[in-house]
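Study both lines:
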Amino acid sequence: MDSSLDALYWRDELLQILYWFHGEGLGETVAACDLLPLAGVEEAVIQLYLDQLADNGYVTRIGGAPPRYRLTACGIMEGGRRFADEFAGLTGQAHGECNNPDCACKTLGPRACTTHTGSTIA
């Protein structure tokens, strides 16, 4: 699991998870074992890529056994960007009032709702 594609995949995946943890208040610092339920791989794999994130400045390694990690400002920015890209289709969904499955608000957001307003966005 040390190919360049694997490294890119795990960088993106772990930054998204860490950003989500940070944003939801689930922990400012995490250990590899904290990420097991979300990553779906062995702890050693998570540890390897967390160390790479630290080496590249996305996280700060905090001593201890096991070591813990905290997103840096760069990690927050990059994690947020990757998280937004990954979930763009979900975060721009309808406003919850429209029951029309074909309404534009399902993909373009509440301003595009034609069911409740009778018009489209300009």
